[in-house]
Amino acid sequence: MRVKLAINPLTWTNDDMPELGAETPLETCLAEAKLAGFAGVELGNKFPRTPAALKPILDAHGLALASGWYGSNLLERDVDAEMEAAEPHIALLSALGCTAMVHCEVTSAIHGNKGKPVAERPVLTEAQWDVLLPRLDEMAKRLGDRGLAMAYHHHMGTLIESEAEIDRMMAGTKHVGLLLDTGHLTFAGGDPVRAAKNHAKRVTHFHAKDIRADVMADVKARNLSFLDSVLAGVFTVPGDGCVDYAAVLPHIAAAGYSGWLVVEAEQDPAIAHPLTYARMGHDNLARFAAAAFG
């Protein structure tokens, strides 16, 4: 199978809410990721951020680095300044053999604000679109010259969240690749199957985050923040929610996708036992992937 399975350490310890899983050491995250069957991991807040420190740790567990999140501020600074700010991250991913960089524009983002309802997230003005898209495209081109595809992560609580915004970003750029996150898109009211069909050739990374439909309806009705929605259990691992992976994955498979499929499902580890859900996510995703990719 030309795709590989990875997991984000959010299953064990949360980046936006460090108190979730704060007591869990990195060793446990990596050992259990391997035990669950994964070949790789994404970066998390407990990972050392230099190649010399991180590579031996991953090698000891037989895990590769799949990618890692980078939050840009391209509405507030030009591409030269953004590339300079991103350089340590770019160097780390490159040194560890990554081929894509998870990228999200986080200017004015509210996903980390527990007191702000996710429905009140910022929306780009026409003038901001005119600034952001050329800068994103130029940064994506420069990353490509460095051997890294930009994998733009549409994300709840940020400037590019909805399916229409994804469509506009794709139409307005040439070099930007898409990180298709099935959970975030479903939460935003979009259709992951349609997005996969429309943008299959531009997908450079994939997050298999599932949604509990009943919880999603409840948190939207209560106008909760992104973080409170996480605590309520809106996200889960693939195959445990309402996303139709059997319909999503064939579109990117037919387009030749050969990157990572990443289980990313932040939950409260005190409620959702990490190893149990890691195993469930791996086994379900492996089954979906085998059917789509052969």
Can you describe this structure?
This protein has 294 residues and is an alpha/beta fold. It has a single domain (4-293), classed as TIM Barrel. It is built from eleven helices and eleven strands. The strands form two sheets. Strands 3-2-1-11-8-7-6-5-4 form a nine-stranded parallel β-sheet. It has a two-stranded antiparallel ribbon with strand order 9-10. Helix 3 packs across helix 4. The longest helix is centred in the middle third of the chain and has 20 residues, at 126-145.
What would CATH call the architecture?
Alpha-Beta Barrel
Oligomer: single chain
Strand order of the largest sheet: 3-2-1-11-8-7-6-5-4
**Content-based structural category:** alpha/beta
Q: Termini distance?
A: 6 Å
Content of β-strand = 15-25%
Structure annotation, total helices: 11
CATH superfamily: Divalent-metal-dependent TIM barrel enzymes
Mean pLDDT over all positions: 97
Q: Fraction of residues in helices?
A: 40-55%
The level 1 CATH classification is: Alpha Beta
CATH fold annotation: TIM Barrel
The main sheet comes to:
9 strands, parallel
Radius of gyration: 18 Å
Number of domains: 1
Protein name: Myo-inosose-2 dehydratase
Pfam family, one: AP_endonuc_2
EC number: 4.2.1.44
GO molecular function: myo-inosose-2 dehydratase activity
